Amino acid sequence: MASADLRDELTCSICLNIYTDPVTLPCGHSFCRTCIGDVLDTQEASGVYKCPECRAESQERPALVKNRKLRNIAENIRSTHPEQEEAGIPCTYCDSPVPAAKTCLHCEDAACICVYCMAGEHRGHQVETLNEASEKKKEKLRNILQKLTSQREEAEKRVQNLEELRRQVQGNAAGVTERVTALIRDIRKQLEALEKRVLSEISRQEEQVSPPSLRSNPAAGNKEGGAVQEDGNCLTRTGIRQRRLLCGSDLSDLTLRPSWDCDRITRRHRVPEASDMLLDVNTASDMLLDVNTASDMLLDVNTASDMLLDVNTAGRYVSVSEDLKTVSGSGINQGRPETPERFQVYPQVLSSRSFSSGRHYWEVEGSESGEWGVGMTYPSIERRGGQSLIGENNKSWGLEKIYNKVYYMRHDSKLTQLPHSFSCCRFGIFLDYEAGRLSFYELCDPIRHLHTFTAAFTEPLHAGFGVYEDNTWVRI
């Protein structure tokens, strides 16, 4: 302990090492000659000299008195206790390797300095210890690391969202591809069948128009034609031709005699008129229009897969499933409170979602037995009385199953029975709001267009569902 105290007394307060050639100032403080000399040199420009320890001032450069006794003691200590190198950051301004005592943060140098530099060139600068500077740097690094960590987590979330979106797009693309492929296959089948029907009908009508006698014996036909031409008093050439084509006369049914008698011309079979011959062609055009409608249905369409039933509109004898996807008729009063939006007479329910723009498609399935209906309706539809039935007013349009396999289209109190029977109870509904089209399709094999309503929609449209007998059901 005594040796440590003695070593501290023999340490220069500038270089923090044992004195080397110690000298003493008039104030009595001792320093290494080199150390105090450098300090006095830096103070010379200011004209005031100060002691680094007691800050005693002098207008003239103080004389340095050699302290021999202190030098001897210092050399003795140095020889018996070799000096150990100090660890730490060296001072960047000292010539000898002196450890830095403080670091400067507020000057342009931003360097580590020792006590000697604090009294010299960096006098008056605001400084702090290495530990303080280190803690501040660590705090800044922690903040930066926290921000980077947060940004990385956000980036990972975005990557996950993009992956999920990619999977959804792939799934939707696969579904659309399958539907388009099935539609094109059905179109091809329908076109082939349509071609056969039209060509067969043309051949049949051609056979019906041409008399068998002319087909089997053209010469006889020419002879009979001459006889017809000779009797111009009864029929002109133009009149005969018109009667054959438009009045339905068949050459095979005419009795040709030397004296032509108009009263004996009889008609046994009617030859189809030109308008009748075009009937199947028009039907073919209608089928092609239906194909175009089905094709448009697959382009730029929002699939309403999230459609749910609104229990607040369900009638008292309507049962709604927990997933809000199925409605069924029930003979038991469900005990729902009477509200303005609830159907009071008919067992019907609306969807919670409405459509006021765009193109939308969804599918429904109904029970094979019983009476039920599906369609679209304005939210302003009546909830009481006979006008509250879907399709019985000008605010709703619907497909209604009345008897087994018998279907009607209903709008504004007008019923249109669909002519053909049905092979399944699954239907697709396509809404083009801006174009004013509401189409219904039977989802059998092949897909068949049933009916399209056209209107200028003026309100948002809700999907409507009705179950008019017990144990009947409709599922979205």
From TrEMBL:
The B30.2/SPRY domain, residue ranges: 287-476
Record CDD domains: Bbox2_TRIM16-like, RING-HC_TRIM25_C-IV, SPRY_PRY_C-I_2
Identification of the protein by name: Uncharacterized protein
Native species: Leptobrachium leishanense
Start and end residues of each RING-type domain: 12-55
One Gene Ontology biological process: innate immune response
GO CC, one annotated term: cytoplasm
Residue ranges of the region described as Disordered: 202-231
UniProt-recorded Gene Ontology molecular function terms: zinc ion binding
Organism ancestry: Eukaryota, Metazoa, Chordata, Craniata, Vertebrata
InterPro entries according to UniProt: B30.2/SPRY (IPR001870), B30.2/SPRY_sf (IPR043136), Butyrophylin_SPRY (IPR003879), ConA-like_dom_sf (IPR013320), E3_ubiq-ligase_TRIM/RNF (IPR051051), PRY (IPR006574), SPRY_dom (IPR003877), Znf-RING_euk (IPR027370)
Pfam families per UniProt: PRY, SPRY, zf-RING_UBOX
Annotated keywords: Coiled coil, Immunity, Innate immunity, Metal-binding, Zinc, Zinc-finger
Claim: Endoplasmic reticulum is one of the keywords in the record: no
Domain of life: Eukaryota
Keyword Ribonucleoprotein: no
